[in-house]
Amino acid sequence: MKFFGKTFLSTLFLLSFYWMQAQEMGLAGYYSDEFQGRKTASGEPYDKSDLTAAHKTLEFGSYVRITRLDNKKSVVVRINDRGPYIKDRVVDMSRKAAEALDLIRDGRAQVKLEVVSKSELTAAPESPAPEKKEELTAKSGEPVATAPVKIEPEKKTEPETPKTVQPAKTEKTSKIAETTTKGKAVTSQTYKDFGLYKIQVLKPKEGGYGVQVASLTEYENVLKQVAELQENHFKNILVSVEKGKDEKPVYKIILGPFPDLPTATSYKENLKKKHKMDGFSVNLEDIK
To answer: Using CA atoms, how far apart are residues 162 and 251, in angstroms rounded to an integer?
Structure first.
């Protein structure tokens, strides 16, 4: 009995371990197009038109079904790269796989990962529901029976004098102005080191408090940090440019402003709780 009990517990442990390895929950993202053609950890180049993905531990060549939890859409991908190395993210997939889950607009979503066996991949797909006869006939390219149409003889008409149409300059100009003033917010998924970005520099109202969340010495990293904040729906982003060592500038990223210190402190605590983001309150009047 003791031997049987130990064997049963060992089997149960192994089954539990396998189930934990076969299923995983967490955030999913996808590769930026700038990685197209670059070598993955497996050695093969990344192709955004392939159904592939990156995972931290699964073997190269293994297949995983990724199911988006909110819309229940799923796709099977092949693991050929390592990563992702962003906190709380469990998988990064190719653009084609992301399109199958409607992930392009959202950038990331909660998903479930399930390891797929070879037998599941080779299983015959389910037969689709039969379409209506009229639709099948039309799609196949065969003629569809229709009622005879009586063709009336063409009536001769005098050609009309062409009217002079003035180009709508005002409408065209307004459309250009609309596209240049509105734009689309850049996130960490869509940000690239090279490209055209709209920058609007404004002086905020004097006074108040803010929450500093970053201090950077390289200007190119400022745009990346702002893109990541915009991805998390932060809009009131301030940048304080101050003198650092050897007269080199230091870029401090601050969220705000807030009318008083208690409000800023409360916001800082909310950042830590909801976004796992550290920061500290600063008096904006002290920044010159």
So the answer is: 62
- The C-alpha atoms of residue 64 and residue 22 are separated, in whole angstroms, by 9
Q: What are the tokens at 91?
A: 């998988």
Task: pLDDT tens for the chain, 288 residues: list them.
Answer: 454 455 545 554 444 444 445 678 999 999 988 889 999 999 999 999 999 999 999 999 999 999 999 999 999 999 999 988 887 899 999 999 999 999 998 888 999 999 998 777 765 444 444 444 344 333 434 444 444 444 455 555 555 555 554 544 444 444 434 444 466 777 766 777 677 777 777 777 777 899 998 888 887 788 888 888 887 778 789 998 888 877 889 899 999 888 889 888 988 888 888 878 888 999 988 886
SS3 (DSSP) at 281: strand
Pairwise CA distance, residues 172 & 180, whole Å: 13
The answer to whether the CB of 264 falls within 8 A of the CB of 210 is: yes
- Hey, what are 13's tokens? 């442990």
Q: Say whether 90 sits in a helix, a strand or coil.
A: strand
Both tokens assigned to 60: 């190269």
Helices marked H in the chain: 2-22, 95-100, 118-122, 133-140, 169-181, 219-231, 261-275
Residues 53, 120 contacting (CB under 8 angstroms): no
Q: Is 82 exposed, middle or buried (0-12, 13-18, 19+ CB in 10 A)?
A: middle
Contact between 83 and 56 (Cβ < 8 Å): yes
Q: What region does 84 belong to: left with phi over 0, alpha with psi -120 to 50, or beta?
A: beta
Query: Contact at 8 Å (CB) between 44 and 80?
Result: yes
Neighbour tally for 123: CB within 10 Å:
9
